[in-house]
Write a structure and sequence with these properties.
Layout lengths: L1 E5 L7 H10 L3 E4 L7 H7 L4 E3 L13 E6 L2 E6 L11 H9 L4 E3 L6 E5 L4 E5 L13 E6 L7 E6 L1
Parallel strand pairs: 1-2, 2-3, 5-6, 6-8
Antiparallel strand pairs: 1-9, 4-5, 7-8, 9-10
Amino acid sequence: MKILLVSDTHGRDEHLEEALEIEKPDFLCHMGDLEGSEDYIRVIANCPLAMVSGNNDFWTDLNPEVTFELQGFRIFMTHGHYYYAHSGNEQLKSAGRRNKADIVLFGHTHRPTLEFDKDIIVANPGSLTYPRQEKRRPSYMVLYLEKGKLPKFETKFL
């Protein structure tokens, strides 16, 4: 299963449209700061999706975190601001473990990151709109999940 991981589009969806066209995913995960684009993203995704609210999503019905299963993997998804993501991944890992997750997906920092711990994986695709990492290229991740196999992540830039 090919899963597109995105975050922090901030209501500017041109790069999301481009990533969807390039990747043609089976599933889309958006880790928040959509700023009113929820309905539009549901229309353009052309696949099942999961979305959470971020710290800039003031008038939304999205939950701040969700837990779900794909291909036998339990995924905990949040924006990250409630877990002090700018200070590291420890609180995110703890929240993931409390939710019995194999994978924690988050955004908020606008920097792609991937950490494999002994019992949990933590991933942030960065931002498609306002990247903050070196060279400041819009980023996203593709996650490949297959039941019984190790998850494979690719960080990509537009």
